[in-house]
Amino acid sequence: MIRAAVLKGTSVYGKEFIGFRDGWRGVTEGDAIPLERKDIQGIGKLGGTILGTSRSNPFENGDEKAEKARAALDRLGVDSLIVIGGEGTLAAAKRMVDLGVNVVGVPKTIDNDLSGTDMTFGFDTAVGIATDAFDRLRTTGDSHGRVMVAEVMGRHVGWIALHSGMAAGAHAILIPEQRTTWDELTEWVTATKRRGRAPLVVVSEGFVPEGGAEAYSDQGLDAFGRPRLGGIGEIVTAEIEARTGIESRCTILGHIQRGGTPTAYDRVLATRFGLAAIDAVVDGHFGEMVSLRGTDITHLPIEDAIGTLNSVPQSRWDEAAILFG
Ligand code: F6P
């Protein structure tokens, strides 16, 4: 993304770039590095970001940090800002627009939970890593006749679980959008076992189990006030073992699914978003976010993307659930 925006911005539009380190923290503190052609060459195949990132929110305690950010942008002579991130980052971007900052947004979250775009880059890579991990877990499941439970990311939505689970032929998938009961899950697991197969159960970190009120979390809040998730897989595993008597094991993929080399699909999408982002800056589409619609890149107001989440629709769940058990 950064590479494409800088390449087109410098060579076609004659723009100059700097990159803020660690997301909003860098903007607030005016902590920037030069971004010239030599700084971005070869980065297309890297995961993560050369700029660093942080869970920093310029509106965490009122507008004070955001005002500091605006002052830093003026001081550094920055006339427009390309903001890359998910729901929290883009919600902050929208508020910066309201403070008069020229912002263009770029959607980026592996959860794929942003509305207004069919896909965010990072998602395809995460799904690929998770699918590969499940194939490996099935080796142990098949050899030992165990239930293998795998927990993937997906704070509010189950796209990673749905796609990777479907790709790996999971026998049950648990996602935040669906309140699957313990009885339903037990039925899928025992039916699979009866057929002589070792059940693979994929669960999103944000799945809310029967009897629970919210997603499982015991690690406090992040800077956006969101609970740090992770651990529901262990609860699901214990419940399966207790109900079925089948030896069960849990693997939490965690940040493994967010790292390493991006897929070709993600590299192409990120590149196209970068090209579109600098076009949007030059054309004055401030307050807008670039987006993928079908195979086309377009843009829309940031507020249209952050209002409601891109959750797994019932039809996609029903389609997948035919294959459970
Ligand atoms: O928001 C994207 C996400 O990947 C979520 O799925 C996950 O809950 C969260 O990030 C983890 O964040 P951190 O790396 O800050 O623990």
Describe the structure.
- This protein folds into 2 domains: 2-121 and 262-306, 3-Layer(aba) Sandwich (Rossmann fold); 126-259, Phosphofructokinase domain (Rossmann fold), CATH 3.40.50.
- The longest helix is centred in the middle third of the chain and has 22 residues, at 123-144.
- Helix content is 41%, strand content 14%.
- The protein is elongated, with a radius of gyration of 21 Å.
- It has 325 residues and is of the alpha/beta class.
- The model has no long low-confidence stretch (mean pLDDT 96).
- It has helices at residues 2-11, 24-29, 37-40, 64-75, 87-98, 123-144, 159-168, 182-194, 232-244, 264-282, 302-306, 314-321; strands at residues 18-20, 32-34, 81-85, 103-107, 147-152, 172-174, 200-204, 248-252, 288-293, 296-301.
- The protein is built from 12 helices and 10 strands.
- Helix 1 crosses helix 10 (264-282), helix 6 (123-144) crosses helix 7 and helix 8 (182-194) packs across helix 9.
- The strands form 3 sheets. A 4-stranded mixed sheet has the order 3-4-9-10, sandwiched between helices.
CATH third-level topology of the largest domain: Rossmann fold
Distance between the termini: 41 Å
Q: What is the mean predicted local confidence, pLDDT?
A: 96
List how many beta strands DSSP finds.
Answer: 10
Taking the sheet with the most strands, its summary is: 4 strands, mixed
Spatial order of strands in the largest sheet: 3-4-9-10
The count of helical stretches stands at 12
Q: What's the CATH class of the largest domain, please?
A: Alpha Beta
* SSE run: HEHEHHEHEHEHEHEHEHEEHH
Oligomer: single chain
Which descriptor suits the 3D outline? Answer: elongated
Q: Specify the structural class.
A: alpha/beta
